[in-house]
Amino acid sequence: MIGLVTRRFMQLIFLLVGISFLVFMSMYLAPGDPATIIGGPTASQSDLEAIREDLGLNRPVLVQYVDYMKGVLQGDLGYSFQTNQSVSDAIITRFPNTLNLAIASMIVAVIIGVTAGIISAIKQNSWFDVSSTTFALAGISIPNFWLGTMLILLFSVTLRWLPVGGLSAPFYTIEGMKQLILPAITLGTASAAMIARMARSTMLEVIRADYIRTAKAKGVRQRGVIWIHALRNAMIPVITVIGVNFGGLLGGTIITEQVFAINGVGRLMIDAIAARDFPMVQGTVLLVAGLFVLVNLIVDIVYAIIDPRISYD
Q: Measured between alpha carbons, how far apart are the two ends of the chain, in Å?
């Protein structure tokens, strides 16, 4: 296990360096000029040259990238071209909202997906199974922005049960929970559908195994067979889906944050891309990439805890 963690951290370093280089070059090659955006339409040519000189944009791109990575190794992600705010401070301020939204969405997805998948497998071809499969297809097909808008129209505008948007209150308060309900459902629906499909298929495979038939022949009750013998083995592929989806949720909250006006990392990234704010884009992308790899490492560790037969030698 120690060897696995060490290898993954080494891979994480190389991956983040590669991602940072690709993002840096993509922003450099994209049309538009940060100096023009910062200076505005009334800026003269000399003003633009002064801005480029101040930000170091007139140096060779590889020199800019090397200087940026030197700062990253020292824990300095640079300063925003737009606001002159520290990128680290901006991310630290916004990240709790994104993290709370991702966790709430994953809780919704796991509760709905695992429960629906297990019941569908136990009651195969029943009305519940058909309904669950239909829900899974709808959940994967419906775009987040449309679902979020419909939920706002129904529960916020028409029924006035929940707030329209924002995430200003702490998540552990009643108001904070109310603010999280609609965006969590919006973001977690697609993940719930994928988890439900995986849980159903793996549970169907497991409950037909020989050791399950043996347990039933020994007189073990149906509940014991499902929860003690079948579920633990069926959950291994499901954990993969949960881990990958959670990593994706951390970086995929952009649309939901826009719809519900949540000041998270997703909105920060979109605003930075629109303004050609190189340091802010780099910082947010590095955060999302690092968290995604870290979540996958945690999933591998959980594998070994659930099934000791798994070896990483």
A: 8
DSSP 121-143: HHTTTSHHHHHHHHHHHHHHHS-
144-158 residue pLDDT tens: 888 888 999 988 888
* Distance, CA of 86 to CA of 78 (rounded, Å): 6
* Residue carrying the six token digits 């209150």: 169
Domain ranges across the chain: 88-306
**Cα–chain center distance at 49:** 39
Q: Length of the chain in residues, anyone?
A: 313
For the 88-306 domain, the top CATH level (class) is mainly alpha
The answer to whether 86 and 96 have CB atoms below 8 angstroms apart is no
CA dist 94 and 86 (Å) reads: 13
Query: Residue 44 is encoded by which pair of tokens?
Result: 């003269």
What does residue 86 show for φ and ψ, rounded to 5 degrees?
Answer: -60, 130
Sign of the CA dihedral with 39 first, then 45, 50, and 56 last? positive
pLDDT of res. 118: 84
CA distances from 209 to 25, 124, 158, 233, 273 (A): 52, 16, 50, 11, 51
- Picking from 10, 1, 16, 100, the residue whose alpha carbon sits closest to that of residue 292 is 16
* Cβ–Cβ under 8 Å, residues 233 and 179: no
**Exposure class string for 259-274: b at 16+ Cβ within 10 A, else e:** bbebebbbbbbbebbe
Q: What is the pTM of this model?
A: 0.81
Q: Angle CA(146)–CA(149)–CA(150) in degrees, nearest 5? A: 85
